[in-house]
Design goal:
mainly alpha; 469 residues; flat; 0% strand; 23 helices; Lysozyme
């Protein structure tokens, strides 16, 4: 063997190891800093209370600082205590917009949308020239959607397009109008906004996303010929880059529409045109359709070669201990864990999610008792046994909530239960691919792709007891 080639390979491995060590150290230091911030404001609050236990009045900027540390760590009651003090004591302070927005976000994250809406309305009307005001208007629309007030939500988003034609959320405002009108049963109005979006964002990803919204609407309405026409129009596009959809998704939805229209042979031809390459979610679904239809399918995924490198079994005893009694497939737990933390128990995300299954404190606090852990502190979530025990209780609840639809469980895990419930309500027929197409957040959609690909690979490699096949 050429020695220079061998040295090159060794140097590349050493460099990769050094970079990994740097990233892990940097992540750990950032996590320590954020956890230290939370512990710091908690200690300060303990000191800054009167004999009656109430928080003393501090300078407005100190209340805002502490409030956002709590909010970022999802300690919502503590955050609201500080924001409310600013609202009550400093009504003319320039930081009032920050306090109102923080109060509203704390309620929204707790899914107390009715309480959040008037606060978002106030910050948007009193501070329209600030980012808090712009964001407040957008989030007010989101809260209305989540409580089923879709026509009101559409009006709020339309107000955003008028007031902030170049605002940070102008793209999503158009798309949210389309979906809100559709959910309100205003199909003609929704279609009109698709055309507005195609004109306003011609040649941009938002126009593509609007067209995909029309395709989803036609499938929901069981207008199969309209769905095929919408899909064909999209398949003429030169690129899907930057959008929330792909050629594979559109082909899958077209195949499904043809299948529902009774054109089975044409549907199978369309499914066959979707490559089943490694990691292609839509190719996997298409292969399942072809197999169910009696078609011979040759899979191209290289599975066995990836077993030890990309899909390891880690924390096997803890996963089996807590997942199996709850009726959860341990391979699904591994699929989520791989995506959430890449099996690193000591990491914390910017959204304050901790540990192997990246649990946030407020969610963990709902499931710790059912997991057999009566009390816990936020830092306990870095312990694998605690994290897996609570995480599997959470997954079990999601499995029951979404009738075992794995895509919905994964979407909920990343995007929230209320969002996943809304996407599932919009899913007709109840097909995994239709549900995934309905996901409204790019991050969540990509998350579902990755988790389901992980799950597919783990099922190919291991049995339900995590033994190699």
């Amino acid at each position: 063997m050429d020695n220079s080639f061998l040295r090159s390979k060794i140097m590349k491995k050493l460099f990769a190891a050094a970079m990994l060590a740097f990233v892990l150290c940097f992540t750990a230091s950032m996590q320590t800093s954020r956890d230290a911030d939370l512990r710091g404001v908690t200690r300060l609050d303990e000191q800054d209370r009167g004999k009656d236990g109430k928080l003393i009045t501090l300078p407005a900027d100190e209340h805002i600082k502490r409030g956002y540390v709590y909010l970022d760590n999802r300690h919502f009651p503590e955050a609201r205590e500080h924001f409310q003090r600013v609202v009550d004591v400093y009504p003319n302070d320039p930081l009032l917009s920050r306090a109102l927005f923080g109060l509203a976000r704390a309620y929204m994250w707790e899914r107390r949308y009715v309480s959040a809406i008037p606060l978002f309305a106030r910050v948007s009307s009193e501070f329209p020239e600030t980012k808090d005001g712009r964001e407040g208007l957008a989030f007010m629309g989101a809260c209305n959607v989540r409580i089923g007030q879709n026509e009101e939500a559409a009006k709020v988003y339309e107000r955003y397009t008028t007031l902030y034609p170049t605002g940070e959320r102008i793209d999503s405002a158009y798309l949210n109008i389309i979906d809100a009108l559709r959910e309100a049963g205003k199909y003609s109005d929704a279609a009109a906004w698709v055309e507005k979006a195609k004109t306003r964002f011609a040649g941009q990803p938002t126009a593509t996303n609007a067209m995909q919204g029309l395709l989803r609407m036609e499938i929901y309405r069981e207008n199969w010929s309209g769905a095929v026409a919408a899909a064909d129009e999209m398949l003429k596009l030169k690129s899907f880059s930057g959008s929330m959809t792909t050629d594979g998704e559109i082909r899958y939805l077209k195949g499904l529409a043809l299948e529902k229209a009774g054109k089975r042979s044409e549907a199978m031809t369309v499914y066959s045109s979707i490559p089943d390459a490694d990691g292609n979610y839509w190719g996997g679904l298409a292969s399942d359709k072809l197999s169910a239809g009696g078609n011979r399918v040759k899979r191209t995924a290289q599975i066995k070669s990836k077993a030890s490198d990309d899909y390891p079994v880690v924390f096997r005893s803890e996963i089996l201990q807590y997942a199996k009694p709850k009726g959860i497939d341990p391979r699904f737990v591994l699929a989520i864990m791989k995506q959430e933390s890449t099996f690193r128990p000591g990491i914390k995300s910017p959204s304050a999610a901790r540990g192997l299954l990246q649990l946030v404190y407020d969610t963990a606090a709902k499931y710790n008792e059912s997991a057999g852990i009566p009390t816990f502190e936020p830092d306990d979530l870095y312990k694998p046994s605690v994290n897996i025990a609570i995480g599997t209780s959470y997954i079990q609840d999601l499995e029951q909530m979404f009738n075992g639809l794995d895509e919905a469980v994964a979407a909920s895990y990343n995007g929230g239960e209320d969002n996943a419930s809304r996407w599932l309500n919009r899913t007709k027929p109840k097909d995994p691919g239709v549900f995934t197409a309905e996901i409204g957040f790019a991050e969540t959609k990509n998350y579902v792709f990755k988790v389901m690909t992980n799950y597919r690979m783990y099922k190919a490699l291991y049995d339900e007891n995590l033994n190699s096949k």
